[in-house]
Amino acid sequence: xxxxxxxxxxxxxxxxxxxxxxxxxxxxxxxxxxxxxxxxxxxxxxxxxxxxxxxxxxxxxxxxxxxxxxxxxxxxxxxxxxxxxxxxxxxxxxxxx
Length: 97
Hints:
This protein is α+β, with helices and mostly antiparallel strands and 97 residues long. Helix content is 43%, strand content 22%. It is built from five helices and five strands. The chain has helices at residues 3-11, 19-25, 42-49, 56-64, 81-89, and strands spanning 28-32, 35-40, 67-70, 75-78, 94-95. It has a five-stranded mixed beta sheet. α5 links the parallel β4 and β5 (94-95). It is globular and about 35 Å long.
């Protein structure tokens, strides 16, 4: 079960996460003009999704991906399809930026 789903179960709400949770996991807060994002590196994504086994291809994809959480829309985005698939397999919508 992903951390997002655990938080949803704990607070009895839809599977949502906020910037504070992601920053605590190691995400990097970024703000410019009216954009507010939390960028996620490979380690943060692995922790967030509670991945116990990541093959070399997935790890390479995670490391090269620009993955972020848009604070205003409360949605995840990644420029790499493999990363979007990993999120979606764990019940978390992740879109292409």
